């Protein structure tokens, strides 16, 4: 049965193919260098060229493609539940960063393989499809790689865009080339959007209207972050009855605001401890120097330094332990929001029972934060003065703080009920 793609290939698409062929060697040089720096084995580096490092399992293969850490982890619970629904199915998940690969490796669902995705060029994409021959390809959020999509549909792969989210800038860019947008979007059999705004944008850009369906924010469906109970117990013993707050996923320019806030809070809470979790642990040395410049005493996780009664800041500059820090303290400022970054996933701290403080720059999670703020599970601040007031309010009013934690967790629970509906729609529309 034919599957019309909603448009014809355009000159712009053919120009993209030609340019990608020319640039592919330079792109390969760049990504290979990054993978080498992360100590990724050569065999796995070649996955970016479409050369698989594992055999294709027999039977039905369902492929998920995500950009990096957040998107990758958000689909693991979905794969687990889909695997229970489809006990004969095998799963492939591709993601582009070594960090995401390392975290996924620790949490792989049953019957699931991880690979790096092919570069979006003719040779790598052809080799990828020739080897893996997926029955369905599920792209997460805004991963619109033209050749992967066009060649996938031509190979008979049923394609979906899951948790679809497009920035206003991206929408404006695609609308400049309406015929190409219609052609690329026409490769998908299904769009499951995070919100109505994205659904409206996709239709306006040329997506086949009946293929656009409401979904939910997939990151609400991910399982809680793992907790190292042994480490958690040891940390609790070291902290004792000291008050604690967390600044998580911070970026350059935000640590300064956090440390200014901590300085002000110490005047009212002299034994207060800050758990500072940079978004990128490899910035640990720079952040430690910044802490020293503020005059704080610091213990650093990557150096296995213990918290003492004199420690004012604990620098948690390691990967994969954020769930443990959230378990230690449910009062969380979530970074990426005081700068023009877009914010980070509030479901992770909320699933751990935390109430969340955010800056105004949470545009990547606008619908989530708006609802959490309205429900009382999150608070928006704009600067160090606001952040100081928000943390101080929750430190000084336990009943108010507990109500905020309850509201945040309740919001997450209401979102998680949508998982079965998402699986039903994927199975039906992708013929699984």
Give the strand content.
Answer: 5-15%
Largest sheet: 7 strands, parallel
Low-confidence stretches: none
Q: What's the helix count?
A: 19
Distance from first to last alpha carbon: 16 Å
CATH architecture of the largest domain: 3-Layer(aba) Sandwich
Shape: globular
Counted up, domains total: 2
Structural class call reads alpha/beta
The beta-strand count equals 14
Q: For the largest sheet, list the strands in their spatial order.
A: 3-2-1-4-5-6-7
Percentage of helical residues?
40-55%
Identify the CATH homologous superfamily of the largest domain. Answer: Glycogen Phosphorylase B
The chain-level mean pLDDT equals: 91
The Cα radius of gyration reads 23 Å
CATH topology tier name of the largest domain: Rossmann fold
What is the CATH class name of the largest domain?
Answer: Alpha Beta
Please summarize what this structure is:
One of its GO terms (cellular component) is plasma membrane. The protein has 432 residues and is an alpha/beta fold.
Describe this structure in words.
With about 425 residues, this protein is α/β, with parallel strands linked by helices. The chain folds into two domains: about 10-25 and about 55-215, 3-Deoxy-D-manno-octulosonic-acid transferase, N-terminal domain (Rossmann fold); about 230-415, 3-Layer(aba) Sandwich (Rossmann fold). The protein is about 45% helix and about 15% strand. The protein contains 19 helices and 14 strands. The protein has helices spanning about 10-35, 40-45, 70-75, 75-85, 100-105, 120-130, 145-155, 170-175, 180-185, 195-205, 230-240, 255-270, 285-295, 320-330, 345-350, 365-375, 385-395, 400-415, 420-430; strands spanning about 60-65, 90-95, 110-115, 135-140, 160-165, 190-195, 210-215, 245-250, 275-280, 300, 315, 330-335, 355-360, 380. A seven-stranded parallel beta sheet has the order 3-2-1-4-5-6-7, with helices on both faces. Strands 10-11-9-8-12-13-14 form a seven-stranded parallel beta sheet, with helices on both faces. β8, α12 and β9 form a beta-alpha-beta unit. α6 crosses α7 and α11 crosses α14. The protein is globular and about 65 Å long. The relative contact order is 0.11. The model has no long low-confidence stretch (mean pLDDT about 90). Its EC number is 2.4.99.12. Belongs to the glycosyltransferase group 1 family. Glycosyltransferase 30 subfamily.
């Amino acid at each position: 049965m034919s599957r019309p793609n909603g448009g014809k290939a355009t000159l712009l698409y053919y120009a993209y193919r030609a340019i990608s062929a020319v640039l592919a060697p330079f792109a390969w040089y760049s990504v290979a260098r990054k993978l080498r720096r992360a100590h990724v084995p050569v065999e796995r580096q070649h996955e970016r060229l479409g050369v698989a490092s594992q055999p294709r399992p027999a039977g039905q293969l369902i492929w998920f493609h995500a950009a990096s850490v957040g998107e990758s982890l958000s689909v693991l619970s979905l794969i687990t539940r889909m695997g229970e629904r489809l006990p004969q199915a095998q799963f492939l998940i591709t993601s582009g960063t070594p960090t995401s690969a390392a975290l996924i490796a620790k949490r792989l669902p049953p019957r699931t393989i991880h690979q790096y995705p092919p570069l979006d060029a003719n040779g790598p994409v052809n080799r990828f499809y020739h080897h893996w021959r997926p029955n369905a390809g599920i792209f997460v959020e805004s991963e619109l790689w033209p050749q992967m999509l066009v060649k996938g549909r031509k190979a008979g792969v049923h394609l979906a865009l899951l948790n679809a989210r497009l920035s206003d800038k991206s929408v404006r860019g695609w609308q400049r080339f309406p015929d190409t947008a219609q052609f690329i979007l026409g490769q998908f059999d299904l769009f499951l959007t995070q919100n109505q705004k994205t659904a409206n944008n996709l239709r306006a850009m040329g997506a086949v209207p009946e293929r656009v369906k409401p979904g939910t924010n997939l990151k609400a469906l991910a399982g809680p972050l793992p907790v190292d109970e042994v480490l958690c117990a040891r940390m609790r013993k070291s902290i004792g009855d000291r008050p604690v707050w967390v600044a998580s996923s911070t970026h350059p320019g935000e640590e300064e605001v956090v440390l200014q806030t901590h300085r002000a809070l110490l005047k009212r809470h002299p034994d207060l401890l800050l758990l500072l979790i940079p978004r990128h642990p490899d910035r640990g040395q720079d952040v430690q120097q910044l802490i020293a410049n503020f005059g704080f005493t610091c213990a650093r996780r990557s150096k296995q330094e213990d918290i003492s009664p004199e420690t004012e800041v604990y620098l948690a500059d390691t990967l994969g332990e954020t769930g443990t820090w959230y378990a230690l303290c449910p009062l969380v400022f979530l970074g990426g929001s005081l700068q023009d970054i877009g914010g980070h996933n509030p479901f992770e701290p909320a699933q751990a029972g935390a109430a969340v403080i955010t800056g105004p720059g949470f545009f990547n999670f606008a619908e989530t934060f708006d609802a959490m703020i309205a429900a009382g599970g999150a608070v928006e601040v704009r600067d160090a003065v606001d952040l100081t007031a928000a943390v101080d309010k929750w430190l000084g009013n336990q009943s108010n703080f507990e109500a905020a934690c309850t509201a945040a967790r309740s919001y997450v629970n209401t979102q998680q009920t949508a998982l079965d509906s998402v699986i039903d729609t994927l199975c039906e529309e992708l013929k699984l």
